[in-house]
Amino acid sequence: MMDPRSEVVLRQQQFLSGKVLLINAPADELARELPNDLNISIWTWNFADHQYFEQQQFATHFSVEFPQKDIDQVIIFVPKSKELLSYILHVVASHLKQGQSIFLVGEKKGGVERAAKQLQVLGKNLKLDSARHCQLWQCILHKTETLKPLENWVKTYSIEVNQTQLHICALPGVFSQNHLDVGTGILLPYLNNIKSGKLADFGCGAGVISAYLAKLNCNNEIYALDVDAFALRSTEMTFHRNGLHLEQLHIQAVTGIHDAPLELDAIVSNPPFHQGIHTDYAASEGLCKQAKRHLTVNGELWIVANRFLNYPLLIEQQFGRCNTLADQQGFKVLYAHVSQ
After folding, report:
1. What is the pTM assigned to this prediction?
2. What region holds the Methyltransferase small N-terminal domain (predicted)?
């Protein structure tokens, strides 16, 4: 099914020409439906979307950085985060030339009007279409920019857990970019009791859990798993910032827990349940249902989740038992292990 934002782009395809880069595009048929004389490529930081475009045999670039190629026009599908859009616009304006076009498309409820205001500083803005609760804007680039290093976009903050201090680095759009979220804050003190060994942090975000597990025991082998390239790079930066051994850290892009390594001693997660502006429980419910097959005998599952979610039942169905270790501030810390 075609995303309504893609439908709006298709309606105005006469404005497109040459080498067109789709940025943050949804996994749908847009690239196939656009005219054959366009040279379409994709830049995405979502690993699931990247895999979809690879299967469709499009040139797709999974990264936090702009592809190393000549581009005539870009179409930006507005991300949820205003800070992430600022970064994307800066990167685009440092790679395109004056007179080239930036197109911006998004849902009204997804902040497209706010995004169009962010676009204004770069050139002349025209609203090309408004349909299907979406808008499409064109900006003729008047002002190019000089690319700033990625480090300029990092936000940092410090946390302390059980006398352990950590400095967290988070790039735009990454979960809990400005401060430690409540759920992770509740979970962390319990992790002193975790089994050591080969540990996975599912939905690693800025690497808070990964870094804490690495600090607990320098022999722990940490697998930081996330769908988002900005999260994976943030985790790496957090490890650097805290002087942790990068040999301990394995960064892995995943679309779900099924992509995780096998024979893990523990899986820890503050599981994601948002996909863009929409709620999506598929990844977190998949974790509850499939975690056991990725664990060794006596392997452990540690999850923090909103109290209202039915995860304890899903975990019990797989593990036989799910213990609630904490229930505070709207969150539960859940624990299960694989019996012999």
Report:
1. 0.95
2. 6-157
